[in-house]
Amino acid sequence: MPELTVPELLELDRRHVWHPYGPMPGRQEPLVVESASGVRLRLADGSGELVDGMSSWWSAIHGYNHPVLNEAARGQLERMSHVMFGGLTHEPAVRLAKLLVDMSPEGLEHVFLADSGSVSVEVAVKMCLQYWRSLGRPRKQRLLTWRGGYHGDTWQPMSVCDPEGGMHELWTGVLPRQVFVGPPPAAYEESYAEELRASIERHADELAAVIVEPVVQGAGGMRFHSPAYLRVLREACDAHDVLLVFDEIATGFGRTGALFAAEHAAVPPDVMCVGKALTGGYMTMAATLCTSRVADGISRGEVPVLAHGPTFMGNPLAAAVACASIELLLGQDWLTEVKRIEAGLRDGLAAASDLPGVEEVRVLGAIGVVQLDHAVDMKAASEAAVREGVWLRPFRDLIYTMPPYVTGDADVARIARAVCAAAREG
Questions:
Q1: Is position 21 annotated as part of the catalytic site?
Q2: What are 27-52's pLDDT values in tens digits?
């Protein structure tokens, strides 16, 4: 195919490319990115660059075109880009599993490498269901979670997303029927803690697991909640023989000011899902970690294997970059950088509190959120941010940012101005 002009590319895109959460054909014209470096996206139409306030859906924590990650990819590419994981193994996957075990909450000893965050949740659910079947308790097959959550777009993850007002409401009545409690309040409330305890006790005989996003609910609403609820869940699950799953796909690798959000409560789960920032945004990969209790339980069953094996499981290229990304993160003072961004967002977003239509402004770690009292005009808000030289992706009633950790102070301030402009226009 000959080189395309930007208008030609956009016309082909509109006719043939189905973008996420969009109609076919598309109704909004996307921006065409030519290249990316550091925290900047260079546009193909020659109009300049945009500071990326989204870390490409929260994954590119080191920014773009990073020399360390580039070298890891090049080096692995020269050895092998892929080899099947069934019956074979290789150093990048083994090293990655060891790195994840060493940095994760205590007790998570076993690592199942998956293709994406949503698939890692599917694997987590399968682990929990098979664990109880292996122990001769097949009735324990439902999941409990709180409203306002989001765990992915494949089947079981959709079933534990918020069934009312969420993006998967269309599938109500078709998805597996799970147990929901109310959304977690921001501050600790004993009455809500008691609701959690009572719900787990009431459904214990049929619950395989409780699954939640710890401390920060992501795409379900960007809400923050007290870490104390994680301790309540751990105690109630232990008391009533229910597994506890933490979905750290969005919160893992430092985003909230802890390596994993569970650390805010010093609570270890039985199963944990990670993804997004795992490869520093270079390629898709995720992982499901579990305790020896879970792995041994499955291994003692009538079917002693976890019957799941994606074609690209343990992909060497992705694993090598993931190892480099984790080592890069741990080899620097990442916490100081996240706290610096947090301070910059607090300062810069304070002005949004006085804007008409703004319901709340909240910041935690390298996460800044402006919640409106109405559905955001996505086109107007996005265009306002672009005029400020920033790329944002608002949704529902939210204008938010999750910048790369390498974002400098001036660019953090610029992102904050763009969020305020988007709130004003959206």
A1: yes
A2: 788 999 999 999 999 999 999 999 99
102 phi, psi to nearest 5 deg: -65, -30
pLDDT interval class at 379 (50, 70, 90): very high
Which one from 276, 282, 400, 405 is the annotated catalytic residue? 276
Q: Is 247 a catalytic residue?
A: yes
For residue 58, pLDDT over 90 is answered with: yes
Instruction: State yes or no: is 229 an active-site residue.
Output: no
For the chain, the residue count is 426
SS3 214: coil
Residue in the structure block whose two tokens are 């790195």: 99
Place of tokens 């974002």: 407
- pTM score over 0.90: yes
Query: Nearest to residue 302, comparing CAs of 142, 137, 136?
Result: 136
pLDDT of residue 106: 95
Element (DSSP H or E) covering residue 359: strand 358-364
Residue pointed to by tokens 């075109």: 65
pLDDT tens digits for range 99-119? 999 999 999 999 999 999 999
Mark whether 192 is an active-site residue. Answer: no
Q: Output the CA–CA distances (angstroms, integers) from residue 60 to 66, 253, 397, 418, in the order listed.
A: 10, 11, 24, 20
The dihedral built from the CA positions of residue 264, 266, 269 and 272, taken in this order, carries a sign that is positive
Which of 131, 150, 192, 229 is the catalytic position? 150
Task: For residue 156, count CB atoms less than 10 angstroms from its CB and return exposed for 0-12, middle for 13-18, buried for 19 or more.
Answer: buried
CB atoms within 10 A of CB 71: 13
Q: Rounded to an integer, what distance in angstroms lies between the CA atom of residue 139 and that of residue 129?
A: 9
Please identify which of the residues 162, 247, 270, 411 carries the catalytic annotation: 247
